[in-house]
Design brief:
- The complex is a heterodimer of chains A (about 180) and B (about 210).
- Chain A is built from 6 helices and 5 strands, in the order ααβββαβααβα.
- The radius of gyration of chain A is 23 Å and the shape is elongated.
- The N and C termini of chain A lie far apart (about 60 Å).
- About 15% of the residues of chain A have low confidence.
- Chain B has about 210 residues and is an alpha+beta fold.
- In chain B, the strands form 2 sheets. In chain B, strands 3-4-5-6 form a 4-stranded mixed sheet, with helices on both faces. Chain B has a two-stranded antiparallel ribbon with strand order 1-2.
- In chain B, α5 packs across α6.
- The longest helix of chain B is centred in the last third of the chain and has 24 residues.
- The chains are: A alpha+beta (about 180), B alpha+beta (about 210).
- At the A-B interface, α3 and α4 of A face α2, α3, α5 and α6 of B.
Chain lengths: ~180, ~210
C-alpha cells in the first residue's frame, strides 16, 4: 500500500480547499462536478484514480493506485424507503446517491470541500458561464428555419453556426 | 427607467444611483458589476425561452439576435429581431413571478424597454414574452444551499432539496401555459418621453462629472 499512500499524501498536499461561494451569504458548499473538476487532474498527476460503485444498497468508493493496483475503499449505506414530496422513487435515489458520492469521495481523499473556514485556503469560485454555445433545435423549429431559409429570411450558414444539429438533421439539410 | 416618487423631482433615486455609478466608472474607472440569481437564470435559459416561444406561438422562425443597435440616444440588443418579429423574452424566476393572470403589461420599465427596441429597429410593434423554463441545475443547487443556510441546516435535508427542486421545475405545466405574451404597439409619446428623460439624465450626469 506504500505507493498508494505516498501518492495520496502528495495529492493531499496539492489539492486546494474546494470552495463554492454563494453570493452574499458566505455559506460555502462544493458540488460534485466542482469537486471532480478540481481533483481529477491532480489524481492523474499522482497516478491515482477512483470509482464509486452502487452495490445493492451500498455506495462503495474505491481509490486506486494506477500502476500497482493498490486500493483503499469505503462502504456507505444508501438510505432506503425515503419518501420525498414531489419526487418519485428514482429521483429520491438519485438525490441520495449524489449526496453520498460528494461526501464519500471528499472523505476518502481527505479533502476539505463542504465549508470554508480557512481564510488562507484557496477558493475556487464557480461562475455562471455566459459563453456562447450551440443549442439544439427540434424538428418542428428546424422546419420553420428551413422555410425561412427558402424565403431568404435566414441563411444555412447562420443555422449551422447557431444550432447543434443531429446527424439526421444534417443529413436532411444536405438533401 | 423608473419614475420619481415625489413631486418636483425629475429623476428617481434609482436613476440617480445608477448615474452616480456611471460617473464613478467614467472618471475613476471603477466598474460596478451587476448580477443576480434572477439575471443569471435569464441569461442561461434565454435560448430555451426563445425556442419555447417559437414552439408555442404562431410565428415564423425566430432566433437569437446578435446585432447591437444604437442611435444618438439609446443603445440595445433585442433578443429576437427578424424581418417580421421584434421580441424580447423574460424568463421568470419561478411560478410566483410568472404573470399567469395578467391581461396587461404591469411592469412599465419593460414598456419603455420595448419602445427603445422599436425606436432602434424601426419596428412598429413588438412582443414581450414571459417564459417559464426550468431553472438550470447549477442555480437550483445554489438555491438549495441558500435555503439550507437560511434554515441553519448543516446536513443536507432531502425534504428541503425536493421542495426547492419542485419550485423550479415546470415540466408538468402545459408548454402553452408557460408563455405569456404582451403585444406592444409603438407610441410616439413614449419615445418623446424617453428623449426628455435622457436629456435630464445627461444634465444630471454632466453635473456629476464636474463634481468628481
Amino acid at each position: 500500500m506504500k505507493h498508494l499512500f505516498k501518492s495520496l499524501a502528495e495529492f493531499q498536499q496539492e489539492v486546494p480547499t474546494i470552495h463554492k461561494a454563494t453570493q452574499g451569504y458566505g455559506y460555502t458548499y462544493a458540488d460534485l462536478p466542482k469537486i471532480f473538476e478540481v481533483i481529477n487532474p491532480l489524481l492523474k498527476k499522482h497516478g491515482l484514480g477512483f470509482t464509486q460503485l452502487i452495490n445493492g444498497t451500498e455506495l462503495v468508493t474505491i481509490v486506486f493506485h494506477v500502476e500497482t493496483g493498490e486500493t483503499i475503499e469505503s462502504k456507505t449505506a444508501i438510505p432506503q424507503g425515503v419518501q420525498l414530496k414531489g419526487m418519485n422513487d428514482f429521483q429520491v435515489l438519485g438525490s441520495a446517491i449524489s449526496y453520498l458520492r460528494r461526501y464519500c469521495i471528499s472523505s476518502i481523499l481527505g479533502i476539505v470541500s463542504d465549508k470554508d473556514t480557512d481564510a488562507g485556503g484557496e477558493q475556487i469560485k464557480v461562475e455562471v458561464k455566459n459563453e456562447s454555445k450551440k443549442v439544439a433545435i427540434d424538428d418542428k423549429r428546424l422546419a420553420k428555419a428551413l422555410k425561412a431559409i427558402s424565403e431568404n429570411e435566414y441563411t444555412k450558414e447562420e443555422l449551422l453556426k447557431t444550432f447543434e444539429l443531429t446527424p439526421e438533421q444534417l443529413k436532411n439539410i444536405a438533401q | 427607467m423608473t419614475s420619481p416618487k415625489s413631486k418636483g423631482e425629475v429623476l428617481s433615486q434609482t436613476t440617480k444611483t445608477y448615474l452616480h455609478e456611471l460617473a464613478i466608472e467614467e472618471v475613476y474607472d471603477i466598474r460596478k458589476e451587476f448580477s443576480s440569481r434572477y439575471t443569471d437564470k435569464g441569461n442561461e435559459v434565454e435560448d430555451l425561452s426563445i425556442a419555447l416561444c417559437n414552439d408555442v406561438l404562431d410565428l415564423g422562425f425566430i432566433y437569437k439576435n446578435e446585432e447591437h443597435f444604437t442611435n444618438d440616444w439609446i443603445t440595445g440588443t433585442p433578443d429576437v429581431n427578424t424581418n417580421e418579429i421584434l421580441l424580447d423574452v423574460k424568463s421568470s424566476w419561478d411560478a410566483t413571478t410568472f404573470p399567469f393572470f395578467d391581461t396587461e403589461l404591469k411592469n412599465k420599465d419593460y414598456l419603455y424597454q420595448m419602445h427603445g427596441y422599436m425606436w432602434l429597429t424601426g419596428k412598429e410593434e413588438s412582443l414581450l414574452c414571459y417564459c417559464l423554463i426550468d431553472t438550470p441545475l447549477q442555480i437550483v443547487e445554489d438555491e438549495i444551499r441558500r435555503e439550507h443556510w437560511k434554515a441553519s441546516l448543516i446536513e443536507e435535508s432531502l425534504d428541503l432539496r425536493a421542495f426547492v427542486q419542485a419550485k423550479h421545475t415546470f415540466g408538468h405545466i402545459p408548454k402553452e401555459k408557460r408563455v405569456k405574451t404582451f403585444k406592444i404597439a409603438k407610441d410616439e409619446k413614449i419615445i418623446e418621453d424617453i428623449k426628455t428623460r435622457i436629456e435630464q439624465c445627461r444634465d444630471y450626469y454632466n453635473d456629476l462629472i464636474q463634481k468628481l
